[in-house]
Amino acid sequence: MESHSLPIHYVPLSFDAMVSAGQDFVFVNNTDYVIIIEALVTDESLTFKIYGEQPKRKQKIVLRSQVIKEIDLGYEVTFDLDGSLLAAWENEKITEPAKRGYISQGFVDVYENGKLIKSTKVREDKYAAKQGKKIVRVHPIPPSEIPNTNEFQNAA
Q: Is residue 97 within 8 Å of residue 114, measured between CB atoms?
């Protein structure tokens, strides 16, 4: 199963899944119980719910995401040499925000009576970083000389 190429906000790292023509997601019901899989489709999402009988033991299963490394590519800088790229009151402007990348691992931890009895690494993923872009004024305007932006907005 493949992960997304960039981090996503709605699920912990290493616990996402991506639809891909290259692989099928296959799993095995390794319990002694029947399971039911329900698929829910909307215009924006596909959700699966898996129902089954609760195991007899008093176990708690916890999915744990661990970041191994953060990847930060920073910004590609364009210099505003003649003042034509930035507004009069700007010293710099981010035109595309940078996005941090990660190398992460996903674990399934099993607790019994509050004690960790088993931890299994199920995945390791790499999420690409995205370099941002910004424009920087070559000769910054001292803060005392930056015009009040409210004056510009009121004049417009």
A: no
Please choose, from the candidates 104, 113, 115, 1, the residue with its C-alpha nearest in 3D space to the C-alpha of residue 48: 1
| β-pair type (46-52, 35-41) | antiparallel
Q: How many domains does the chain have?
A: 1
The DSSP letter of residue 99 is B
Instruction: Classify residue 27: in a domain, yes or no.
Output: no
103 assigned to some structural domain: yes
Instruction: Share the mean pLDDT of the chain.
Output: 84
For tokens 């708690």, name the residue: 60
Please name every residue paired with 123 in a beta bridge, in sequence order, or none if there are none: 106
What distance in Å separates the CA atoms of residue 27 and residue 21, rounded to the nearest whole number? 17
Query: Is 92 within 8 Å of 141 (Cβ atoms)?
Result: no
Count the Cβ atoms, other than its own, within 10 Å of residue 108. Answer: 15
Global pTM exceeds 0.85: no
Task: Encode pLDDT of 76-118 as tens digits.
Answer: 999 999 889 999 889 999 999 999 999 999 999 999 888 999 9
Amino acid identity, position 108? V
In three-state secondary structure terms, 54 is coil
Domain of 148 in residue numbering reads as 35-155
